[in-house]
Amino acid sequence: MNKQDLKKRNIAYFTMEAGLDTKMSTYSGGLGVLAGDTLKSCADLGVSLIAVTLLNEKGYFAQKLDSNGAQAEAPAGWPKEEFLTLLPAQASVNIEGRKVKIQAWEYGIKGITGAIVPVYFLDTNLQENAEYDRNLTSFLYGGDQWYRLCQEIILGIGGVRIIEAIGYKNIEKYHMNEGHAAFLALELLERTKKDGEQDLHKKYDLESVRNKCIFTTHTPVAAGHDRFPLELARKALQSNLPLEMPDIFIRDNEMNMTLIALNLSKYINGVAKRHGEVTREMFPGYSIDSITNGVHLLTWAAPAFKKLYDKHIPGWQSDYFSLRYAMGIPKDEISRAHQEAKKELIDHVNARTGAGMDQDTFTIGFARRVTAYKRADLLLSDINRLTEINDKAGRMQIIYAGKAHPSDGGGKELIRNIFSRIKELKPRIKVAYLENYDMTQGRLITSGVDLWLNNPLPPQEASGTSGMKACLNGVPNLSVLDGWWIEGCIENVTGWAIGTLQSQGRDSAQDARDLYQKLEKIIIPMFYKEKDKWLEVMRHAIALNASFFNTQRMVQEYVLNAYL
Ligand SMILES: *Cc1c(COP(=O)(O)O)cnc(C)c1O
């Protein structure tokens, strides 16, 4: 960044993970992919923003599955020198009284008009640091609570310091993408301290910090809200932070990252309308807005759809709203583009798994982090019912992918359960499970299947974004009414709901029955027998949903509601 640019940039976006390039294993799933898509749209729109994240040099993990679906994990190192430039600037934080030095690597995201959003990857792997500290920026979501606490100190406190060392002196807004980054707000608060002042509310200028901070919360699931035992926090931070104001950040004798972010941010939001409501119920007394997530269309469009949009909607790449004109694209061209995307996926699946899938069979896709509430095995929960539908309504094949977090035993068991169901279904229904779900496979699966399935237990899906990638590629969704799908679902027009807002989520067996019913009575018959109607749903998915559920619209909302 040149000097002029350093002065101009006034917004800093902090995130634990960022999915920028499939070869940089610095993301684990939805949160990181959203951060990457957000930053790409900021670059496309020329927003004067910078981003801060951890280097995560050894990545999240590479997933290996044996023939029973038992997951093994290997480090997922990536060649940082190929993507990043090391900067001379350094900063440091104190952890447990030790000085931990931090350096930063720069990555430039280039937008469609040439504007750049720089991303700073923090790195503690310096010779001067203690052995333990050198590993603090190695693994994304690795290690124990202490490791995580140290990482969050590096991200929040180290992040604020190093961007100043790099030369950014005019940051007016600090955006916390999830509570992981909340220490940044304590660092800003510490700087307002007036020594000698006894009244704490005069000693610290809470209001000035709040005016600078923005907090986006991403999950109603309790485990997604970081908390640390108070002794751990005191041991790590010692006297370096305003620990004398406990009501700001301590709840139930724990350092609560969400509480810090809530108390020190003026603008707070959930990531879909329903998630905004759920968050307001979880944290009464705070003013909480919502901005519905999106995806970066240029990243997630299959080559065939990119070509199709370039031909029919010139300029769409800089104006995602214009995808509404997809209503004018001839259906046979949409069909051909889909066949191309489907072939790319089927070839990939057959090459990887030997599943022997074919191009003409109705194909269902399900890929996401594997954890209990997402109910990855719901579709396979009644094998007899599923094979009956396959025999009577029309043949199907199913493609799965997803990693379970290394310490999520329930998630790992789900994968094994799916593998055993796959064996039971052979040879009647072909089911493939792709190893090592990543952004490349995410793009292939969301664009190449005929139906995108999502059935988490409501209301735990804050938003979900993979279904938006499907829409962009004309793939209809079948999903419970949770997260973004409450806003995106128009029954029989853009896709279908599993059950109703009232029925769903009470009883998984009932949700499974509703899912089977919709497949049997409506979706599969339409796919095989009413091609024209099916293509109309595909076209509506693009025109009504891709034109709205994208990060260009989303970033514009952040600029207007949060940044300005
Ligand atoms: C899009 C994406 C996700 C997020 O999908 P959800 O539907 O929000 O769970 C996770 N992982 C990868 C690799 C993705 O591409």
Keywords:
globular, 18% strand, binds pyridoxal-5'-phosphate, Rossmann fold, 6-stranded parallel β-sheet, 20 strands, 564 residues, 9-stranded mixed β-sheet, 42% helix, alpha/beta, 2 domains
**Ligands bound, unique:** pyridoxal-5'-phosphate
Which homologous superfamily in CATH is the superfamily of the largest domain? Glycogen Phosphorylase B
CATH architecture of the largest domain: 3-Layer(aba) Sandwich
User: Which fold name fills CATH's third level, the topology of the largest domain?
Assistant: Rossmann fold
CATH uppermost class of the largest domain: Alpha Beta
Distance between the termini: 23 Å
CA radius of gyration is 24 Å
Main β-sheet, spatial strand arrangement = 5-6-7-2-1-8-9-13-14
Number of domains: 2
Looking at the structure, what is the overall shape? globular
Write down the overall mean pLDDT. Answer: 96
Helix content: 40-55%
Secondary structure class reads: alpha/beta
Biggest beta sheet attributes:
9 strands, mixed
Instruction: Count all strands and give the number.
Output: 20
The low-confidence runs, each spanning 5 or more residues with pLDDT under 50, are none
